[in-house]
Amino acid sequence: MAAGWNRDHVCRGITDGGKILQETFIDSYDPSVLRRVQYMLYEIKWSTGKRLWQRCCHSTRTEHAEIHFIEDVFQEQRSDPSVHCSITWYMSWSPCGDCCKQIRDFLKEQPNVNLVIYVARIYWHKEENNRQGLRSLMNIGVSIQVMDLPVYSYCWRTFVNDEDKDEYDYWPRHFAPWIMLYSLELQSILQNIPSCLEISTDENQTPIFSLCVEDEEQKRALTSANP
């Protein structure tokens, strides 16, 4: 793929050194707002080396970040296919159903790859194609979790541009209610029970989140969840 195309995935709010800008991270990963652009912070660790490869990318109008990673980033970094590789994605949105299918195909072709996915939000959480896609990833061993406060802190320390950065300037305490809501919704998806998360908007187009638990199956499943 042409170098210019690759730059499309790293030019918006990401430095030349692969770090995400502070304001871009805060704006894009805040679970209480619904931003359009999908960002991915990723780590690649090969069993033969000690170094973690850590960079950022985002979706474009024609290609999602997950597909860019699979078709470009991984292929550029892969050496010996027999070497085990651990990959972690920190995503502003969970993968859509179509991306989940391509991720499954990728992992079937790469049996020595282990994938862990952290998400700030769940993409179109009531669409059955997306729900089935996330379950299908879980069923082949992919770990999918909602980003909690320690994960946000890790991403801030690891991926955010260091210029003028002070960790005390960013501590997402107000994220806790949305982390809980998305964690419960992810449990409902993975356990294949009805959605429990409602998202509407007020007259200013501000998202309004609420929890809706209607039957005993939902209550049992959500009680056992550990967001």
Characterise the protein shown here.
This protein is α/β, with parallel strands linked by helices and 227 residues long. 38% of the residues lie in helices and 19% in strands. It has eight helices and seven strands, in the order ααββαβαβαβααββα. The chain has helices spanning 3-8, 22-29, 65-77, 97-109, 128-139, 149-159, 176-190, 216-223; strands spanning 39-46, 52-58, 85-91, 113-119, 143-146, 197-201, 207-211. The strands form two sheets. It has a five-stranded mixed sheet, with helices on both faces. A two-stranded antiparallel sheet has the order 6-7. A hairpin with a 5-residue loop joins strand 6 (197-201) and strand 7 (207-211). Helix 4 (97-109) packs parallel to helix 5 (128-139). The protein is globular.
How would you summarize what this structure contains?
The chain is of the alpha/beta class and 227 residues long. Helix content is 38%, strand content 19%.
SSE layout and pairing:
Elements: H1 3-8, H2 22-29, E1 39-46, E2 52-58, H3 65-77, E3 85-91, H4 97-109, E4 113-119, H5 128-139, E5 143-146, H6 149-159, H7 176-190, E6 197-201, E7 207-211, H8 216-223
Parallel strand pairs: 3-4, 4-5
Antiparallel strand pairs: 1-2, 1-3, 6-7
Helix pairs in contact: 4-5
